[in-house]
Amino acid sequence: MELTDADVEAASGGDSRALTKVYESLAPRVRRYLWARGAEDAEGLTNEVFVTVLQRLPRIHGGEQGLVRFVFSVAHARYVDEVRCRVRRPLQLPYETEHDDRVAPAAEVTALEAAGLEGALRMLARLSEDQRAVVAMRVLGDLSLENTAQAMGRSVGAVKQLQRRGLLALRELVEEGENPRA
Amino acid sequence: MPDETSRMLSEVGLPADEFQEVQELLGALRETPLPPLVPSDEVAALLAGGPVTRRRRRAAIVLGSVVLGVAGASTAAAAKVLPPPLQEVVADFSDAFLPFGFPHPEDDSTERPPTAPQESEDRSPAPAPATPSVAPRTTLVPQPGEPGSTPRSGRQGTPSTAPAPMAPTGPRDGAPMGTATSTPSPAAPSDGPSGPPQEPPPGGVDGGPPVAPHGQVAPDEAPVRDSAHDRSGAGPRSGLGSEGQ
């Protein structure tokens, strides 16, 4: 679904159809980004992001690109907040599936298992926080280099460096013999 | 082949053919179908109404603030703790438009406790005639049936509210203490018009310095001087202390 500047303009004016289009075009990208980053509740966090975004929509400038930058800035900040909250929480035991007697796994887990991508996510998780943020924003969020830099509050050069190191680290992990589809 | 990954590689000068597996890995993450996203209730409300909900919330906050402000002002006006000009405005408004009324600020004057007589009672039986205060005047207005009420019509405004027994003690011996003793005399203000005394006694009752040093005060005159000078200095007080004992 292609989002245009006119859609963003109409959404800023409160047009319900345009607002829905903004949500439907950007929310899946945000959710995928948060999921790849390892958010505990990517769907809930995505909704929190859009509560903020939709309330501030009339004050966002820059058309579609400005909106995308703002959306991913909020998503990045929310994820960082979630990680900080997670760190402050009491010590949690690691989750062990064989001790879990629940019968309905999360939808994301089901999709992940179907695609055999658990290993891929584990590999991505071994990158540094900033490297993972850059790779996820660029690949899963479809953000340009400049938009990624603005969303992360970094310079374009710094993002380029993070991107380069992240890709090299991923290649090393693959060559180490870790099968990402396992 | 994910285009975005190829672009990323070229941006940082890495050869794409050495990163085939990385491209597959990232492409799989990108293309993996995820279950449809369900908007939360709050997001759904925002999508339906847009910023209107915020406007309504803001309007409710403003309305609540106004109601609280009016209630607070009414309570303060009823308790008569507003500044006098504001109290006057609120009272006028309530008189004109409301079925009840708030008190006017000038209503305070009759209810204010008399402070000057209390001080004079603490110190001395003779009151301070320096300033014409309201409370002593109201208490000493002659009753209509009294024999001396008619000729004393001019005294009603005078500050000479001291009791009569104190008057004869004043001008004795021609001492400089005539400042305070001449005022309570019943004869002195009788021929003057009503209102404050037009000829202040010599020595200045109104805040003037004590005319007599400590050693020259007659023993029975010291209390009168002390009250007349409103405890302005240590001299009369010390004289009173030596006097009363």
Key structural traits:
heterodimer, A: mainly alpha, Rna Polymerase Sigma Factor, Chain: A, B: 245 residues, mainly alpha, 45% helix, disordered C terminus
Short note summarizing the structure:
Chain A is an all-alpha fold and 182 residues long.
Task: Give an overview in words.
The complex is a heterodimer of chains A (182) and B (245). Chain A is mainly alpha-helical. Chain A has 2 domains: 1-90, RNA polymerase sigma factor, region 2, helix turn helix motif (Rna Polymerase Sigma Factor, Chain: A); 115-182, Orthogonal Bundle (Arc Repressor Mutant, subunit A). Chain A has helices at residues 5-12, 16-37, 42-56, 63-88, 107-115, 118-125, 129-139, 145-152, 156-175. The longest helix of chain A has 26 residues, at 63-88. The mean pLDDT of chain A is 85. In chain B, 27% of the residues are buried. Among the domains of chain B are: 50-109, no CATH class; 213-245, no CATH class. Chain B has 245 residues and is an all-alpha fold. The radius of gyration of chain B is 43 Å and the shape is rod-shaped. In chain B, helix 10 runs antiparallel to helix 11 (234-244). The chains are: A mainly alpha (182), B mainly alpha (245). At the A-B interface, helix 2, helix 3, helix 5, helix 6 and helix 7 of A face helix 1, helix 2 and helix 3 of B.
Topology:
The complex is a heterodimer of chains A (182) and B (245).
Chain A: H1 5-12, H2 16-37, H3 42-56, H4 63-88, H5 107-115, H6 118-125, H7 129-139, H8 145-152, H9 156-175
Helix pairs in contact in A: 1-2, 1-4, 2-3, 2-4, 2-7, 3-4, 4-8, 7-8, 7-9, 8-9
Chain B: H1 3-11, H2 20-31, H3 41-49, H4 52-78, H5 84-97, H6 108-111, H7 116-123, H8 134-139, H9 178-181, H10 222-228, H11 234-244
Helix pairs in contact in B: 10-11
Topology-level CATH name of the largest domain in chain A: Rna Polymerase Sigma Factor, Chain: A
**Average of the residue pLDDT scores of chain A:** 85
Q: What is the straight-line distance between the termini of chain A?
A: 32 Å
Radius of gyration of chain A: 18 Å
**How many domains of chain A, as an integer?**
2
- Extract low-pLDDT stretches of chain A: none
Shape field of chain B: rod-shaped
Number of strands of chain B: 0
Helix coverage percent of residues of chain B? 40-55%
CATH superfamily heading of the largest domain in chain A: RNA polymerase sigma factor, region 2, helix turn helix motif
